[in-house]
What does this fold into?
Amino acid sequence: MTHEAAARRGLPRTAGLTVGALGVVYGDIGTSPLYAIRESFEGAGHELAVTEANVLGVLSLILWSLVVVITIKYLLFVMRASNDGEGGILALTSLVTPAVRRHRRRTALVLVGLFGTALLYGDGMITPAISVLSAVEGTTVATASFEDYVVPLAIVILIGIFAVQRRGTAAVGRVFGPVMILWFTVLGLLGAVEIAAEPGVWRAVVPTHAVGFFADNGINGVLVLGSVFLVVTGGEALYADMGHFGRAPIVAGWLAVAFPGLLLNYFGQGALLLSTPGAVDNPFYRLAPTWSLYPMVVLATCATIIASQALISGAFSLTMQATQLGYAPRVQIRHTSGEARGQIYVPVVNWVLMVACVGLVVGFRSSTHLAAAYGVAVTMTMVVTTLIFYVVARERFEWSRRAAVALCGTLLAVDLAFFAGNIPKIPHGGWFPLVVAAVVFTMLTTWQTGRRLVGERLRLGQIPLVTYLKELSTDPPLRVPGAAVYLYSVSGMTPPSLIANVRANHVLHERVLVVSVVSDDVPRTDAGSRLRVRELGSGVGRVDVHYGFMESPDLGADLDGIDGLDPEVAHYFLGKEIIVATARPGMAKWRERLFGAMLRNTTSAADYFRLPPTQIVELGARVEL
It folds into this structure.
C-alpha cells in the first residue's frame, strides 16, 4: 500500500475519532458559555459593572486564556508529553520517575503527581453538577414557574448520565459527537448574529484591553479572574482523556470546531451586554430568540450531559493508572471496547461520583453557588502539571534550562494568577474539592506506603526460590499429579503460600510455576515479550508477567501455552495478608487501620487477575505493620 493510499485510508478513521473526541473531550470546555460570562460579572465575592471597558476586558481575558492555556499549553506542548499515547498527571509523572529513580526528587515528584490526581477527583464531582444545573436553569428564563423543578430534574439527569457509563466511552462518543458538533455550530451562530449587530466587540482581540482591565479594577480584577478561569476548566480532563482518542483528533476538533464556536459565542454574549447591560443575569440564554428558548434548553442539557463525560472518563483512566502503578487498591475495571484501547468503565468510581454529584446539587441548589466552589482544585492541578512538565522537558525532551524555564515559567505565571483569583472561593464552597482531594491523597499515599511496608515485613526471613528448591531436594515432598501456580509479588523469592502448603501437606505438584506480576512504567507492554519464563528444574519454573499501567491483567490467558500448564485445570495459590496495626515504626496507627480496611475491601486477586474462582486456594499470612 502506498503512503498516499494509507493516508487516504486513515482519514475516515481520524474523522471518526475527531467526532468521538468532540463527544467526550470537549464537553466541559464547550458548556462553559452557559455560566462563565455571567459569573465574571456577578460571581460570588465580586460585582463588576457592565461597562464597555469591562466587557472588552473580560472578553480579552477569555480569548487569551483559551489561546494560552488550551491551545499553547495543553495542545501544543503538554499533550506531546504522552506516555505511549496516554495522558494525565500519573502518565506524565511516570515519564520522569525512571530518569530520577535514584534521587529523592522521585519521591517528591510522585507525591506531587498523586496530589494532582486527587485534585482531579474533586473537580470531577463538581463538573457534572454545575453543567447540568446551568442548563436546566435556562427554563427559568422563560418562566419562573419552573424554579421548583430545577433541582429534581437535574438529579434525574445526573443519575441517567452515570447509569449509561457501563456502555463505554466509545458508545457515548458515537452518540454525543454529532450532538456536540450541532452544539458548537449553534454556539457560533448565536454569537455571530449578535456580533453582526455590534461588530465593535472585536476590539477585545487586542490584549491591551485585558491589561487595562486589571489597571482599572485592581484587586476586583483578580477576583474576576477566578470566574474567567471557568472557560478553561476542561483542559486537564482533555489531557487525561488523550488515551481514548489520540492527540491528532483532539487537536483537529479544537481548531476546526470547538474553538471557533466558543470564541463566537463568548464575543456574542459580550456584544449583547454592550447593547443590553440588563442581560447579564443570563447572557447565554438571552442570546437565543424567544421561540428557540426551550429547544436551546434541551440542546444545552444534552451538551452538559456530554460535559460530564470528560471528567468521568478521565477519572476512570486515572483510577486504572493508579491501580496498576501501585498507588490504589485493586478495583473492578471493565474494558468496553475490543477494538479501541483505553475504553474502560470503573463501577466503584462511577457510583461514588454519582452520589457526590447528586449531593452537590442538593446542597448548593444553583449553578451560581456551585461556581463559587468550582475552579480551586483544577487550578492547583494545572500548577502541578506545569511543574512536572518542566522536568519532562529537561529529562525527556532534553531542552536547555533556558528554554524550559522560559516556557514553563510563563505558563506557571498564568496558572498562579488563576490560582490567586480562585483563593477567595475557598470559604464559599471551594473547600469541598480540597477536602475530597485531601481524602483521596491520604488514601493513595496510605495504600502506597502500606504495600511497601507489607513487602518489607514479608521479606524478613525471605528465602530465594533457588535456595528453597535446593533445601527441598534433600528431603523431597511427595509429588502429586497436576499443576500449581503460586502468585507472589517479589520476583525470584519463595512465596509464603508455597512454603506453607509444603509444610502443612508435604506435597508438591508435578508442575509448579511461581508467577510474579510486574507493573511497568509504560501504558502497554509488547505481547510478545510479556512473559519471561525460566525453568529451574524438577518441573519448577519461575515466570515474570509484565503489564503496562493501562492494561488489565489476564493471567489465565497469558499463562496459556507454557509447557506443562493447562490454565483450565491448574490450581492457583494466592497469599492473603491479614493486617495487624502496631506501634512499630512505619505509619501512624490510624493509617495502618485505614490500610487494613482498604485491603479487606479491595477486589480479590482472583477477580482482578481473571482466574477461575473454583481453582483458587488462598493461604493467609498475619502481617504486623
